[in-house]
Amino acid sequence: SVVKIDIGVHIDGYIVDTATTVCFNSEYEEMVRTSRIALETAIRTIRPGISTSDLGSKIQRVIENRGFKPISNLTGHQIGRYMIHAGKSLPNVSHVSFRKIHEGEIYAIEPFVTTPNARGRVIEGKEAHIFRLLKRKKFKLRESRRLLTFIERKFRTLPFAKRWLIKDHILNEFAFTHLLESKCLMAYPIFIEESGQWVAQFEHTVYIDKSGAVVLT
Questions:
Q1: pTM tops 0.90
Q2: Residue from 17, 105, 178, 193 carrying the catalytic annotation
Q3: What CATH architecture applies to the domain 125-189?
Q4: Of 17, 70, 157, 194, which one has the fewest beta carbons inside 10 Å?
């Protein structure tokens, strides 16, 4: 089996995001290694002026040349202050886009790699443990107002785990469900490869200067 560890941290809303994959089965070691090599290639390739489509094509070629398949509907992403997914996406496959990378931007680059016989796509699972504030609304229910205010002050627009609310003794299940159904909160469901295959992932956050990428993680 393989285990993916994906971590984000911030200081005053300035975010970095990183991930690694740990392999416990020699059958998948090359797949895991391919994800790391694809990330290293992308970091060497990304620079001001390159299009996201050219970068995606490069990542896809590296993965497929090593006999594996990229996940086509998971992407890297631009990062903004208090926004883990902001602006542009970085697909790991060839695609039609004229969007370019610019100096001064920050990106999380994260190639996802699966087995050659996989579908190469992910679907949403039934469970979600990570959430984030989507928008604020006014509620008549005091418990909903209290929970929404706590989330807004504690996490702003950053993702949070539901268990953290339990730790802070603030979780009210009825109020939490109310916020979800009212579209104040957004859930991040668990992703599953469509054909049930294993997936490897490596990720770094980079700052784009005039000559290329500066790795921040």
A1: yes
A2: 17
A3: Orthogonal Bundle (1.10)
A4: 194
